[in-house]
Design brief:
Layout: E1 2-4, H1 9-34, H2 40-61, E2 63-68, E3 73-80, E4 92-97, E5 101-108, E6 113-120, E7 126-132, H3 138-157
Length: about 160
């Protein structure tokens, strides 16, 4: 089964565009309210910090996710949505045999979701790998859950 969230890239580009337009709008509005405000520097810095926080939250959440369980190995990839073709600084890739998986867990935070894989290596050591699945739809997460359950069930029979 091959699942990814490539369709969400256009939405993230639109969110960045809206953030930039809102920033420019607030800068112009700031000019008009700065004359009447008691402390214009405080007003400007609060608006700037608010937009910077929104920008970094969107940047942190927006990741491309790909899950491929066709064949003997499972390949899971996380990488940045913006500029990921030229710069792979945010890429996290996991490739493992289906027999190595012994557990998984979806974790839901307020605005962030992760998928954690628990893998046994060939020496019996346990490893934990976490992936960002925030922008993966609920239906696709269900398909991933179904595939992982099937793998774990097959591993317990052996």
């Amino acid at each position: 089964m091959r699942i990814n969230n490539a369709r969400v890239k256009n939405t993230i580009v639109s969110v960045y565009f809206i953030l930039i337009v809102l920033t420019l709008t607030f800068l112009f509005v700031f000019k008009t309210f700065s004359e009447g405000a008691s402390n214009p520097f405080l007003l400007f810095s609060s608006v700037a910090l608010g937009f910077a926080a929104l920008f970094f939250i969107v940047h942190f959440i927006s990741k491309y996710f790909e899950y491929d369980s066709d064949g003997v190995k499972v390949v899971v990839t996380n990488k940045g949505l913006m500029f990921s073709d030229k710069f792979n600084y945010r890429e996290h890739k996991l490739e493992y045999d289906k027999k190595q998986l012994y557990a998984y867990k979806f974790k839901n935070y307020i605005i962030y979701r992760t998928l954690v894989f628990y893998i046994k290596d060939r020496h019996g050591n346990k490893q934990k790998h976490s992936f960002n699945v925030t922008l993966v739809t609920r239906k696709k997460r269900g398909y991933i859950r179904q595939s992982l359950r099937k793998m774990i069930k097959a591993n317990k029979k052996e």
